[in-house]
């Protein structure tokens, strides 16, 4: 407000401009109004002489200039001086002069009169000296004129206007005083109500204090009673303890006496029994010595007779051996003579047959030459036509056979796709004779039908009420093999996948399961899946030769050990030293490994020697779970390159037979040191394999498949994706101690069984002509 008042003052006198009081806001507080009502009559007490001289009403709205008359300047200066010296509320607020008649100003309160001046107080108006000089200068030019301020009528009119304004302001101040009185009455009633409320609160507080003192007294009494009860209880407990100690000491002494008596009685009985048994032992020893002497003498006689009989038998054997040697020599001579006779007979028979055919040919030629030329020509044309028909029929038959082979491959692939491009077989190994642990309760509900289900009775679980229950875990796979199943029956189920590899598809067969569940036996034993697959491939390749197919087979055997690749067909001293890299040809979907031994397989016997060599180089170690646990993943890679020289068709198939390392829990295997590192790498790679299969099962087009998270999955990238056929063997142990690991393996196999990896693609191309 001080800023507003300062902004609206006259530039010379520092008084407020007309109309500024009326433009003040009506939001003044009741306190300000009360003070105004109290101090409003102060101007009337100062008397008429205290009113400052005023300027004409017409001079309120205009700015004083230096061109005014000398009298007007003098009056203005005297009015400013009087206003500054008297400092009444009315003059400080309203100032000399009157307001325009259109405004109804209200009287200024005494608050403004009691205020201290601010830092930007009203500046002192300029003196009339400059005005006089200016007016003298103007008078010298225009002539001196008498100002209107000396006109009595004008001054009287001005005073009347000022008086009327003052009366109206006093009236307005009275009205405001009446409003403030009503406000004071309201505040008084409110104060009385608050005083009544305070008295009530005081009474309530007093009563609550009385209750608090009463409660404190009761609490002190209760605490005293509690202390007395505690002291009485402690005294009683001390008495009871002393009484119990006395009774315990009495019972202890009685027990010692009874124990001493029983010990003495026992010692007497023991001495009596020892004496009795010693007597019996001495008698038994004497009897046994007599029997031993008799047996010894009898044995000596029997031994002597046996030696004599043995010498006689030796002589007879030597004689018989001599006779046998003579008979063998005679038999050998007879066999040689018989062989010579058979050779002569065969030679004679061949000569006889040759002569007979020559005779028949000569006879036919003679007859043909003797017949007429026309008959010979007709016979020749007829034979030529028959030969051409036979050749055409043979060629048609061969073409039909080739088409049927192509159709067979398509139908075979469709059957495999209907069965699923990823299949899961479950096999439970039999219990070994060296295993004395309890076997788990495993059932095969549909063993007589399709044999696709397996049920395991879970471990005992105790509920909160103390009841013991066992959960029945049921799993379904493409095929379940019981403990009595042989490798031959298992291979019958996977032989169709081996045929798919010959047809040009990527096939991957891997064994998964805990350590000691029979994975290596299933894959790499003498009658395992690897030897049987190679034998089938050779037999099928030979049968396809008459249809124009020629196959070339190459094999690699690698292991993934601690996320490093080792060549199992290389030199043993180079293991863990050579660095092998995996490289993929994304266009041809082929995988190669650098600096690895590749063996061209000419016969099944070469596969057996290769398996023995790889088994000798594979990393194995003993753990708490298995005496000979495979510490690496072994991968047998068989590449089949086929070419049909008739149709020009080529096929490139790959068969990956994988024996995974045993999955085991660290709490069960108790591996430490190097074994701990191996176990961690094994479990990490198996987890990555599960992640890859799960990502393939989502079937998102262009989705990320985490092949690179593990060397195993990166190596099998083209054998696990959509252009391959995959078979998983989940191997299970029948022991109850391995039930938790068995359930974990079966749950993982169920996840794989519910995965669909898309349609496989055949790797074929037609030879350029």
TrEMBL record:
Biased composition (Polar residues): 1-51, 120-129
Protein name: Kinesin-like protein
Binding residue positions for ATP: 513-520
Subcellular localization: Cytoplasm, Cytoskeleton
Protein keywords: ATP-binding, Coiled coil, Cytoplasm, Cytoskeleton, Microtubule, Motor protein, Nucleotide-binding
Predominant location category: cytoplasm
Superkingdom field: Eukaryota
Record-linked Pfam families: Kinesin
Family affiliation: Belongs to the TRAFAC class myosin-kinesin ATPase superfamily. Kinesin family. KIN-14 subfamily.
A Gene Ontology cellular-component term: microtubule organizing center
UniProt GO BP: microtubule-based movement; mitotic spindle assembly
Spans annotated as Disordered: 1-132
Low complexity bias (residue ranges): 71-93
Molecular-function GO term, any one: ATP binding
Organism taxonomic ancestry: Eukaryota, Fungi, Dikarya, Ascomycota, Pezizomycotina
CDD domains: KISc_C_terminal
Ranges of residues in domain Kinesin motor: 421-755
Coiled-coil region list: 184-279, 303-421, 558-585
């Amino acid at each position: 407000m001080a800023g507003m008042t300062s902004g609206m003052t006259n530039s010379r006198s520092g008084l407020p401009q007309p109309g500024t009081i009326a433009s003040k806001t009506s939001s003044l507080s009741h306190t300000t109004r009360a003070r105004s009502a109290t101090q409003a009559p102060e101007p009337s007490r100062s008397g008429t002489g205290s009113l400052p001289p005023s300027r004409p009403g017409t001079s309120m709205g205009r700015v004083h200039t230096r061109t005014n008359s000398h009298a007007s300047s003098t009056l203005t200066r005297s009015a400013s001086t009087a206003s500054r010296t008297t400092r009444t509320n009315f003059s400080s607020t309203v100032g000399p002069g009157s307001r325009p008649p259109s405004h109804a100003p209200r009287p200024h309160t005494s608050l403004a009169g009691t205020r201290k001046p601010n830092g930007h107080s009203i500046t002192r108006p300029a003196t009339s000296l400059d005005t006089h000089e200016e007016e003298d200068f103007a008078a010298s030019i225009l002539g001196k004129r008498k100002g209107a301020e000396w006109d009595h009528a004008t001054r009287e009119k001005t005073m009347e206007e000022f008086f009327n304004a003052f009366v109206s302001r006093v009236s307005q101040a009275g009205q405001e005083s009446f409003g403030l009185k009503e406000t004071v009455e309201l505040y008084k009633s409110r104060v009385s109500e608050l005083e009544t409320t305070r008295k009530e609160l005081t009474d309530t507080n007093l009563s609550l204090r009385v209750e608090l003192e009463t409660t404190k007294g009761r609490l002190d009494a209760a605490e005293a009673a509690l202390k007395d009860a505690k002291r009485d209880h402690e005294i009683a407990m001390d008495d009871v303890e002393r009484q119990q100690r006395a009774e315990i000491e009495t019972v202890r002494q009685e027990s010692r006496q009874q124990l001493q008596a029983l010990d003495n009685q026992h010692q007497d009985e023991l001495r009596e029994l020892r004496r009795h048994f010693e007597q019996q032992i001495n008698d038994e020893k004497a009897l046994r010595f007599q029997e031993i002497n008799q047996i010894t003498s009898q044995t000596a006689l029997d031994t002597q007779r046996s030696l004599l009989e043995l010498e006689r038998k030796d002589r007879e054997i030597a004689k018989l051996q001599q006779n046998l040697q003579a008979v063998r020599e005679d038999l050998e001579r007879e066999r040689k003579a018989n062989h010579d006779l058979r050779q002569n007979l065969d030679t004679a028979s061949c000569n006889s047959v040759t002569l007979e055919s020559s005779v028949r040919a000569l006879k036919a030629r003679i007859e043909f030459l003797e017949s007429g030329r026309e008959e010979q020509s007709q016979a020749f044309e007829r034979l030529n036509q028959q030969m051409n028909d036979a050749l055409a029929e043979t060629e048609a038959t061969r073409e039909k056979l080739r088409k049927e082979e192509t159709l067979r491959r398509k139908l075979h692939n469709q059957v495999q796709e209907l069965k699923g491009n990823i299949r899961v077989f479950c096999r439970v190994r039999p219990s070994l004779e060296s295993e004395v642990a309890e076997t788990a309760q495993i059932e095969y509900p549909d063993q007589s039908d399709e044999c696709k289900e397996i049920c395991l009775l879970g471990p005992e679980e105790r509920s909160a009420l103390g009841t013991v229950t066992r959960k029945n875990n049921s799993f379904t796979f493409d095929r379940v093999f019981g403990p009595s199943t042989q490798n031959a029956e298992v291979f019958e189920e996977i032989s169709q996948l081996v045929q798919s590899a010959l047809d040009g598809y990527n096939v991957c067969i891997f064994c998964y399961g805990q350590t000691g569940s029979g994975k290596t036996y299933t894959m790499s034993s003498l009658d395992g899946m690897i030897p049987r697959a190679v034998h089938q491939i050779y037999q099928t390749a030979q049968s396809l030769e008459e249809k124009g197919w020629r196959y070339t087979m190459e094999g690699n055997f690698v292991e993934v050990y601690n996320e490093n690749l080792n060549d199992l067909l290389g030199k043993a001293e180079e293991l863990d030293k050579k660095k092998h890299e995996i490289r993929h040809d994304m266009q041809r979907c082929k995988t190669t490994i650098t600096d690895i031994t590749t063996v061209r397989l000419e016969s099944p016997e070469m596969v057996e020697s290769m398996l023995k060599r790889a088994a000798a180089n594979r990393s194995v170690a003993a753990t708490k779970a298995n005496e000979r646990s495979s510490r690496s993943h072994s991968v047998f890679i068989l590449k089949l390159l086929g070419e049909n020289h008739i149709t020009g068709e080529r096929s490139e198939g790959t068969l990956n037979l994988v024996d995974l390392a045993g999955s085991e829990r660290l709490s069960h295997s108790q591996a430490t040191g190097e074994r701990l590192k191996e176990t961690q790498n094994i479990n990490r790679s198996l987890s990555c394999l599960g992640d890859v299969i799960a990502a393939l099962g989502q079937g998102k087009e262009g989705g990320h498949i985490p092949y690179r998270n593990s060397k195993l999955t990166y190596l099998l990238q083209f054998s696990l994706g959509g252009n391959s056929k995959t078979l998983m063997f989940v191997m299970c142990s029948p022991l109850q101690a391995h039930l938790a690991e068995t359930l974990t393996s079966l749950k993982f196999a169920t996840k794989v069984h519910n995965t669909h990896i898309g349609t496989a693609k055949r790797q074929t191309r037609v030879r350029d002509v």
